[in-house]
Amino acid sequence: MPHTTTTPPALQDGDLLAAIDLGSNSFHMVIARYTLGQLRVIDRLRETVRMADGLDGKGGLSAAARQRALECLARFGQRIRNVPPHRVRALATNTVRQLRSPQSFLVPAETALGHAIEVVSGREEARLIYLGVAHAQPPKPGQRRLVIDIGGGSTEFIIGMGMQTLERESLQAGCIASTRRFFPGGKLSKKRWKDALAEIGREFQPFASKYRALGWQEALGSSGTHKAISEICATMKLSKGAITAEALPQLRDELLKAKKIDDIQLPGLSSDRRPIIAGGILVLEAAFQALGLQKLLVSKAAMREGILYDIVGRAGENDLRDESVAALSQRYGIDTVQADRVQDTALSLLEQVQERWKLDADDARMLGWAARLHELGLMIAHSGYHVHGSYVLEHSDIAGFSRQEQQMLAALVRSHRRSVTKTAFDALPERLLLTARRLAALLRLAVLLNRAHEDDPLPALELTADDNRLSLIVPQAFIDARPLLRADLIGETDGLAGLGIQFRPFVA
Question: Are 410 and 393 in contact (CB under 8 A)?
C-alpha cells in the first residue's frame, strides 16, 4: 500500500533549483527555474578556490584553502536564501574525499552555505557529469559516447548511450594534483614530462582495454580544463573547436619551452589557468594515448548541470535510487515479499510519529530503502547478516546515492537487529544522528513485528512518540497468540535503549 510520506513535493512551474559543485579547483553554482517541464538557467557563479592546493598528503587541509572555501560558500549561500532546502543539492568531490576528517570541514562549510553538503564517490561524480553533458548535447540514438572530465583532483571517464552510463571510472589524476605530483617546485622538463606520461599511462591499464573494446562514436570533454586547452589550440591554429591527437604534442612542446610553470606562455591561456595547465595537458595527452583518441569535442556542461537534472528526477518518477535498490534486491536474492511486509509496517509506524519526531518525505524514503534491503546480507551468511549487509551497502558504488546516503543506509541495516554498537553511526554527520537513531528504531520494530513471515496483514498498531520515548499498543488477542513476539517486544526495551530511546510495549 503506498504511503504519502514517501513522495517528496512535486516540482511546480516557477520553482527554483540550485546545484553546487565543490570541485578541487573551482566551486560552481547554477540556479535554474523549472518552467513548462524544462530547466531554464537564470544564474551561474564560479570561483577559483583551489581546495586541492591545500591538501598536505596526510588527509589535512591548509587553513588558507579552508578559508577560501568557506568564504566562497558564504557568498553562494547568500545568493540562494530564497531557494527551498529540498531544491538545493551541494556535492563535494575528490578533495573532500581525501580528507582524514571530512566532518571537520563539512560542518563549518554547511554553516557557511546554509545547506547540507554531500560527498559523492568518483563513480557517482562520473554519472552526474554524463547526465549533465547528455542533457546539454543530446546524443544520437543508438550511439555510444565517451565523456572525459578533468577536475582538480581526479579525472572521470564515462561511456554512455542515450541518458544512461555503461562504464564509469575515476582516475586519481587531476590538473592540480598532477601538476603538484609531477612538477614539484614548478620545474618543467621533457624528461619529467616523459616519466609522468608513462606513470599516468600505467594507471589507465585497469580499464583502457575494456573501454577501447566497447568503443564509442564520439568523444566529449567537459570541465574548464578542456575548454582552456581547446581555446589555446584554436588561438595557436592547431585545431578549430576541438582537441586533436595532432594538436596535443605541438601544444606540449610549446608549453615545455618554459622551464618553470610561472614562465608558461601559451596564446589564449588565462593567468588563472597558468598554474595548473601543465597537469591538465599531461592528463589529456595520457588519455589520448591510452584510449587511442583522435578527436575530442568540448561540452559546456558538467556535473553541476547533472545535479540539476538529478534534482528533477528525484522530484518526479525517475529517482535512480529506486532503480538501484531494486537492482541490489535482485542481485542478492532478497525475499521481496518479506521486504514489502517490513517496508509497509515501517512506513505505517513512521506516519504515526513523523510529526512529533520531525521526519519528512526524504526520511521516509530512506526508511523504505533500508526495509527493502535489510536482509541483503543473508546471501553472504545468516550469522551476522546485518553486519554483512551493512558493509556491502557502505562500500559499494550505488548509482544515485551520495556517500552520506549510503552511510545512512548502512547504519540502519547494521542496527536493525541485535545490540546497537557504539560505533554504528560514527560515519554520519552530527546533523543526521538523531534522525538515524529514530529511523533505526522504527525499522527494528517493523522487522520484529514481521519476524514470523506471516501472510496475514498485521492488525492496527498504535505507536506514540515523545522526544526519546516510544510506546506501542498491540491488540490483546493478537499478542496472546504470539508468545515469541511478546517476548521479542519486551526484550526490545534493551535494543532501543542502545539508540537512546525508552521503549514501552503495551497491549490494548
Answer: yes
Fold (topology level) of 138-300 = Nucleotidyltransferase; domain 5 (3.30.420)
Sign of CA dihedral 423, 427, 430, 431: negative
The CATH H-level superfamily of 319-453 is Hypothetical protein af1432 (1.10.3210.10)
Q: Which fold has domain 4-120+306-312?
A: Nucleotidyltransferase; domain 5 (3.30.420)
pLDDT at 1: 39
- 448 burial (CB, 10 Å; 0-12 / 13-18 / 19+) is buried
CATH 3.30.420.40 domain position(s) in the chain? 4-120+306-312
pLDDT on residue 508 = 57
Instruction: Express each pLDDT in 234-280 by its tens digit.
Output: 999 999 889 999 999 999 999 999 999 999 999 999 999 999 999 99
pLDDT above 90 for 6 = no
Task: Determine the length of the chain.
Answer: 508
From the number of C-beta atoms within 10 Å of its C-beta (0-12, 13-18, 19+), residue 150 rates as buried
H-only helix segments in 450-482: 476-480
Give the integer Cα–Cα distance in Å for 378 and 388: 8
CB 176 within 8 A of CB 209: no
Other beta carbons within 10 angstroms of residue 153's beta carbon come to 26
User: How high is the pLDDT of residue 10?
Assistant: 86
